[in-house]
Amino acid sequence: MDYRALFLVPLAALVLSVSAAAPRMPDDWHVETIVHRMQGPGVGPKHEVGIDPASDASGVPTLHLRLTRTDQVPAVPVDVGDVWQQASGYGGQRVRFSAEVRAAGASRWAGLYMTAKSANMVIRAAQGAPGVEQHLPPGAAVTPGNDWQPVSVVMDVPKQAPSVWMGMALVGQGEVWMRKLSFDVVGPEVPVTTTPIGIDWEGARKNMEQTQQMMAKFPPQALANAQLD
């Protein structure tokens, strides 16, 4: 398992909170999340990711991603959680990532995506990185509801691309599940996905600008925990 965390406070933070009671993460799947908030690290909202314990009864493992709320701060439209896997050796081919997906309470976007630009492209978009709007990963959204829906995203992998990253993402509030996954090479008769993942890049850019302006006004701070306690 690969857990990545980077804090930008007070307005934006890339966070992943894992506790002893957290759901089990399946091998070979990785998590990256960003939550924009007014508080500092250790408080506020967070994403929870792992195998849904309720799926044990059905015998079909289901990966669950949700934004939890531990405060009263409204969710920001560019809060993003994403769980992904990397595959290599598909340069120059058309590939398809599919799963059964369902979502509940999704306030912005939930679904599947793929990219050959690197796994952190989703987080770079949610951070409002300059120019990233030209490289948003293709994504296929699921309609919020209680029913499982087949969802697929198809892309042409550039010839020189060393890897392709595929996964499930949640933008804003809510939760999303996926099960019965498949990944395969398809022929030219299968159309590529032309819709991008549903990230409010303009909102992310404005939020990051506000964050940087506020942080520039902070007074000097001493080195934290110089004793390495």
Report on the architecture of this protein.
With 229 residues, this protein is mainly beta. A hairpin with a 3-residue loop joins strand 1 (6-8) and strand 2. It contains two helices and twelve strands; from the N terminus they run ββββββββαββββα. It has one domain: Jelly Rolls. Residues 1-20 and 38-42 have low confidence and may be disordered. The relative contact order is 0.21. It has a seven-stranded antiparallel sheet with strand order 1-2-3-6-11-8-9. Strands 4-5-12-7-10 form a five-stranded antiparallel sheet, with no helix packed on it. It has helices at residues 121-126, 201-215; strands spanning 6-8, 12-14, 30-36, 46-51, 63-68, 80-88, 94-104, 109-115, 139-141, 145-156, 163-171, 175-185. Keywords: Signal. Residues 1-20 form the signal peptide.
Which strands sit side by side, in order, in the main sheet? 1-2-3-6-11-8-9
Given helix and strand content, the structural type is: mainly beta
Q: What is the helical fraction, as a range of percent?
A: under 10%
Mean pLDDT: 81
Q: Globular, elongated, flat, extended or rod-shaped: what is the shape?
A: globular
Q: How many beta strands in the DSSP annotation?
A: 12
Reported by name, the CATH topology is Jelly Rolls
Give the terminus-to-terminus CA distance. Answer: 26 Å
State the CATH superfamily name.
Galactose-binding domain-like
Order of helix and strand elements from N to C terminus: EEEEEEEEHEEEEH
